[in-house]
Amino acid sequence: MKKETILVIGANGQVGTALLPELQAVYGNDHVIASDLHLPKEERELFLQLDATQATDIASVVKKYKVTQIYHLAAVLSAKAEANPVWAWELNMKTMLNVLEVAREQALAKVFIPSSIAVFGKDAPKNNTPQDVNLNPSTVYGVSKVAAEKWFSYYHERYQTDVRSLRYPGVISHQSMPGGGTTDYAVDIFHKAIAGEAYTCFLSQDTMLPMIYIEDALRATIELMEAPAAQISVRSAYNLAGLSFTPAALLASIREHYPDFVCHFKPDFRQEIANSWPRSIDDAVAKADWGWQPAYDLPRLTADMFLHLAAKYQTAAKQ
Hints:
six-stranded parallel β-sheet, three-stranded parallel β-sheet, 11 helices
């Protein structure tokens, strides 16, 4: 067990829900403090109700629990943010800056704040998008993440704050339900298949997007945070790749398990967002700097999702 105390902000979200047990395994249950604007439905140890728009509240928790690292995961995601851009911008930027200021004032050891492939826009190459390209996003979520990356670099250069970040692709997980992202079809579709229901996909069947399985995303996050500072050459956010696939390819993989599964394609406003994003990501810098390597391909991802979701649905049916 390492002598660090971790504060996770946004612990009820897709990544936070899955990350908590991983951090607890590394640092111990009593050294990982979960927090969110709302308390979870089930009771958990060291879970605090915390409004990250209030910097003084974050600072109080840091002081009380002697926090040394913050994982700030709270954000309004791409599709949801488009419904109310100004609100999404203000919430994403205010909470992020509050965390950076608390980290600076309290001299925290490290901070993790994720970025996203939403930072890329029409000017970036669609295939094997490199680490350093023009960032001209088409969504307010992407704009907020570009601004955040600039703030990460600024705080590191000006105050030596050790901020680390990953440009997450679409994250596919079994631990929680989707939270308003453009790649959420790749989670929803599994739930429909295992429930024996038809699914209507909001993207066209040939829309290729970068994705990552939750197990790879969690491992990448912890490996980045565990890497020595001397190995971190990117102080904005690292490109991160897992795999790329289309809805049609995912459907074919799902039908290997559920041959009669029915899926319809009816693109909506999220199609335009997806069209502005890369088809695949070049994460050579992450591989070179701290040894990143993904482990899950599409068949393994599909099998693991159904394994976990089947257990979850069977447990729910018994209750």
